[in-house]
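Our preliminary data section would be incomplete without showing what the modeling component actually yields. Below, a chain of 115 amino acids is followed by its predicted structure, encoded as tokens that our downstream tools consume directly.
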Amino acid sequence: MDEQRERIRSCDPAERLAAALLISGELSRRLRLLGNAEIAQLLDDEVCANLSILAPEVTVCVEAALRLGLKHERDHLATLGTFADVTAASLDEHVKKTKDAIEERVPVLYQPAFQ
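Predicted structure:
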């Protein structure tokens, strides 16, 4: 990505063409090898971070990264067997649900809270 950014700013038209066609093709190939979690992280680290905070594209990137990250979490949770989602609206309720699940010896707690 850094090489493509550098070449796209070049005064040499051949360098800009390489950035637009060749390097972007290789980047696409590599992106297809990544899972949703890695794409979400890349969106957050590389794309959102390089956009103007006022640009609507930032909102789109943040939402996409959030969705991909949450999907990855759900998919991973499904591989763990029995679990308790102890998230709650208030911190007190969240902590209570965590303690209750521990007392019930639930093997996996999703998003536990301690105080």
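The first strand starts at residue 84 and ends at 85. The chain has three domains: 1-33, 35-79, 81-115. Preliminary results of this kind motivate Aim 1 of the renewal.
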